[in-house]
Design brief:
354 residues; alpha+beta; CBS-domain; Beta-Lactamase; 3 domains; five-stranded antiparallel sheet; 13 helices; 11 strands; 41% helix; elongated
């Protein structure tokens, strides 16, 4: 089985995240082999019958054993192709896209005819492969999701307690991302903070980073837009839009939500949340992400860069990059640009002069 790895108590982004079964056979496979396989693997909810890469039918465990459970049926069917049993055992084989939400799959399952309600669901993944999803797994996921979403206030209270505790800041930030996954399902998330060098990850989940630096991010059009309007931004099909240029450190998400971390309207960094399937961030999830961002800001404000104003930043940059710092900052200061634009432009000069 193949699915996105989930952490304990996290909510799946979509049904593609749930453990599925890829057991399949060709139409000519003897029913005897399928029966033996299902007996040896009791967790498998059935078998898909595939011919030339196309799904032609599904035989579920329950219906199969009901059919061959009688002595005469065993003798009649076990030495016959599974396709003959498929024609007798009617099962809905319409696949659901892997990006479907848990509640959508539940609604689909319950809308089937009464004899088919507890049949497994065929999940069509992004890569074209198919899996059978046990209805019991789906119902458990829905129950857990409802319990987690009903406790958003409890998660925020946990964060408030952590902020005022003596725990290490990195540990607190990673716990915040863990709690965020309970209420805003994601595949990847990161907390990026502005420092004396540019922008860097201070916590992340789901990434395999070669470096914790994300300085090019500050040169992107998306970052400039977020900081200009001081608002969160949601990008559907993010990795394919031109504004994603410069943000490749965040991978290639299908859906992306960026929330600025602001202290007195000045940027401290960004909360980045990514999904690898076509599931949009709804309004409730965006509001929840904003609540988490406020608490991250509360924690980060004690870790601001030493340069807290334009004069100090200018001295710092001039000392480190004498050919770039002074002229850029003086010009930006005269134009009354905000601190994030100053840093963004200074980074451009650093890259220019090397």
């Amino acid at each position: 089985m193949t699915y996105y790895p989930l952490y304990e108590n996290s909510i799946p982004v979509s049904i593609a995240d749930l453990p599925g079964h890829a057991f399949s056979v060709t139409p000519g496979t003897l029913a005897e082999r399928v029966v033996a396989e299902l007996q040896n693997q009791p967790s498998r909810p059935g078998v898909m019958i595939i011919e030339n890469g196309k799904l032609v039918g599904v035989v579920t465990r329950l219906k199969l054993f009901e059919r061959v459970g009688h002595r005469f049926d065993i003798e009649l069917f076990l030495q016959k192709p599974i396709s003959q049993l498929k024609d007798l055992i009617r099962t809905n084989t319409q696949p659901m896209p892997g990006y479907a939400r848990i509640d959508e799959a539940i609604q689909y399952a319950l809308s089937r005819a009464a004899p088919d309600i507890f049949d497994p669901i065929v999940v069509l993944r992004d890569d074209g492969t198919m899996q059978l999803l046990d209805i019991n797994i789906l119902l458990l996921a829905q129950s857990h999701a409802m319990a987690s979403l009903s406790n958003i206030a409890g998660n925020l209270e946990q964060i408030d307690s952590l902020i005022h505790s003596a725990h290490d800041m990195n540990e607190i930030l990673h716990n915040i991302l863990r709690l965020l996954r309970h209420v805003v399902p994601y595949h990847q998330a990161g907390i990026l903070a502005i420092d004396g060098l540019g922008l860097g990850f201070v916590a992340h989940s789901g990434y395999h980073l070669y470096s914790n630096r994300a300085d090019d991010f500050m040169m992107s059009a998306t970052y400039a837009l977020i900081m200009k309007y001081r608002q969160a931004i949601y990008l559907p099909n993010a990795c394919n839009v031109p504004a994603w240029r410069g943000m490749e450190v965040l991978g290639k998400p299908i859906a992306w939500l960026g929330v600025p971390l602001l202290l007195n309207h000045q940027p401290l960094g960004l909360l980045s949340i990514s999904r690898h399937v076509e599931r949009a961030f709804d309004s409730d999830e965006r509001e929840t992400a904003l609540a988490f961002a406020q608490r991250i800001t509360e924690l980060l404000k004690c870790e601001q860069p030493a340069a807290s104003n334009l004069n100090e930043l200018q001295e710092s940059l001039t000392a480190r990059f004498p050919r770039a710092g002074e002229s850029v900052l003086e010009q930006m200061y005269r134009e009354n640009k905000s601190l994030d634009i100053v840093i963004k432009s200074a980074l451009g000069e650093w890259l220019k002069y090397g």
